UniProtKB/TrEMBL annotation:
One Pfam family, short name: Acyl-CoA_dh_2
Protein name: Acyl-CoA dehydrogenase C-terminal domain-containing protein
Annotated Acyl-CoA dehydrogenase/oxidase N-terminal domain residues: 36-125
Keyword Oxidoreductase: yes
Keywords: Flavoprotein, Oxidoreductase
Organism classification: Eukaryota, Fungi, Dikarya, Ascomycota, Pezizomycotina
Length: 425
């Protein structure tokens, strides 16, 4: 398919100089994310309807410095913990779920080498990404067949197809993952996106998260040096025999699952904020209830619903922050090769993350659909754009069935079992 039209980065050119310095504290980073959200909120509904490739929106993330939030200061990064990254994702998603999702995936993929790579590879990858202010996408979808990797001298060669990739079309680098031919060993590597061997299908035409460029991609003989095979020894062409590091590498999945939950939460919070403004300015009181009110904001059922939604979102936010602190704690304690991360410690944190996933899925779907009950029938007009919140959260909450998270947490609560690491746990 032909590429869809792109948004123009020139519309955000003023922010390239406005945000010339990075924030230095957690509060300042969250405030920067809120500034980005305020810009995106101005025309979020219109951009959703136009469904253009988000070239400009990624440029805005670059100008804001948010892409550098987790990176080391020595290369110009913010060197913040994941707990701050999660809050930034949430703030951006309040205004635009697609761009919140892109930020979340970038933060995960740009730090992949921290988890599955060697210290030298992580350092080199950070220098590449931060000094160039690169945006990173990923073609890693475990539901598809693995990419095939063949060895060719000092290089590995990736080939295959992925039904989903995220942000690839507008990325500078793409994370690839596959299985080395003749083995069961997986390899991650980052490669330049702009090359003939990466061929995007341009087929992302779904009901929600329309600006994430999450369609298919063909990987045709894409080469990477063995030195970029994350966690592998380039001289022996073997995975590092380091069981402690392998245990640490399993943190990749809880980390990204909590990324998901935070943009779910951001979308739900954004829908309530958006609906609140609509209710206070446009919703009319119901004149046939026998207890007539002059204003919709005096209606008992409207106040009751907003109170209930707000309370549940407040609880979900507290739970998400607690899990973010748990993830950050593990990274702080076990990021060196000498540290020992036990399966039990990893599993305990995975259950915090699973709990957040369950709660944010449930409350997110309930709030984003329920806000129509307190805004009224006129709020369903396309020009209002309230529907995009539900469409966005509905699409991604199907990523992996939440029923399995409920079962997983059930086994933990009932039998004190922690889950085995998997592509989704």
């Amino acid at each position: 398919m032909a590429p869809i039209p792109e948004t123009n980065p020139a519309v955000y050119a003023q922010y390239q100089t406005k945000w010339s310095e990075l924030p230095s504290t957690e509060d300042a980073w969250v405030a920067r994310a809120q500034e980005v959200a305020k810009v995106l909120a101005q025309d979020a509904a219109q951009r959703d309807q136009e469904n253009r490739s988000p070239r400009a929106e990624v440029a805005l993330l670059k100008y804001s410095g948010l892409l550098k939030l987790l990176g080391p200061k020595k290369y110009g990064g913010g060197e913040q913990p994941w707990s701050v990254g999660y809050k930034a994702i949430r703030e951006v998603a309040k205004a635009d779920g697609s761009i919140g999702m892109l930020l979340g995936y970038h933060l995960l993929w740009s730090t992949t080498a921290n988890v599955v790579g060697t210290p030298e590879q992580a350092d080199r990858t950070h220098q590449l990404i931060i000094t160039n202010n690169y945006f990173v996408g990923g073609a890693v979808n475990p539901r598809d067949s693995d990419l095939k990797i063949t060895a060719d001298g000092d290089h590995i060669v990736f080939s295959g197809n992925k039904f989903f990739n995220t942000g690839g079309v507008v990325s500078d680098l793409t994370v690839l993952e596959g299985v080395l031919d003749g083995t069961q060993d997986h390899i991650f590597a980052l490669v330049k996106t702009d090359q003939p061997g990466i061929q995007f299908a341009h087929n992302w035409h779904n009901i929600g998260l329309r600006l994430t460029e999450s369609g298919g991609v063909k990987i045709d003989n894409v080469r990477a040096p063995w030195t970029d095979a994350l966690g592998w020894d380039a001289s022996t062409k073997q995975p590092r025999e380091d069981t402690l590091k392998i245990a640490f590498a399993t943190l990749l999945l809880p980390t990204i699952q909590l990324v998901f939950s935070n943009f779910y939460l951001g979308i739900a919070l954004g829908s309530l904020e958006f609906a609140s403004k609509y209710t206070t300015t446009a919703t009319r009181a119901w004149p046939f209830g026998g207890d007539n009110k002059e204003s919709a904001t005096d209606e008992f059922y409207i106040l009751e619903r907003y109170g209930n939604f707000f309370a549940h979102l407040r609880a979900a936010e507290a739970l998400a922050d607690r899990a973010g602190d748990q993830i950050s704690g593990l990274y702080a304690r076990y990021s060196s090769d000498k540290a020992v991360l036990t399966p039990r410690e990893r599993g305990e944190v995975a259950e915090w993350v699973a709990s957040v996933k369950i709660v944010t899925t449930d409350v997110g779907l309930r709030v984003t659909s329920g806000v129509f009950e307190v805004t009224g029938s006129r709020a369903t007009a396309s020009k209002v754009g309230l529907d995009r919140f539900w469409r966005d959260i509905r699409v991604h909450t199907l990523h992996d069935p939440v029923a399995y998270k409920n079962r997983e947490v059930g086994r933990y609560a009932l039998l004190n079992e922690v889950p085995e690491p998997s592509w989704y746990t």
